[in-house]
Write a structure and sequence with these properties.
By secondary structure, this protein is an alpha+beta fold. It contains 3 helices and 4 strands. The longest helix is centred in the C-terminal third of the chain and has 15 residues.
Length: about 100
């Protein structure tokens, strides 16, 4: 997954609940069609700061457990909620290494 794909997919999720270290996302059904969506469940296997993921396809939700000492919860929340694409790009560059995402868009 590259940073451009991460930026595209963020528009297809909504934060349902977030406490430092645990994030629950509601997934837009269109996310299923995104070419990089299959990689979301592999984040914890790639040595990133993501500790575990749990997908519930019936509820269209994804729970992401992450290391809040490595990923600033406020930065993660702002990245997912930002309506400013320029700001989201800057935040994506900050988060890329933590997610194991290729930094080049």
């Amino acid at each position: 997954m590259n940073m451009q794909e991460l930026l595209e997919m963020r528009t297809l999720v909504d934060v349902v609940h977030h406490v430092p270290g645990r994030l629950r996302l509601r997934l837009d059904p269109r996310l299923r069609e995104h070419p990089a969506a299959r990689e979301l469940g592999n984040w914890s296997a790639n040595g990133s700061a993501i500790l575990a993921t749990r997908l519930n396809p019936v509820a269209r939700s994804l729970v992401v457990s992450y290391d809040p000492k490595r990923i600033d919860p406020a930065v993660l929340e702002e990245f997912l909620a930002s309506a400013d694409d320029t700001r989201a790009q800057a935040l994506a560059e900050t988060l890329a290494n933590y997610f194991g995402v290729t930094p080049q868009a």
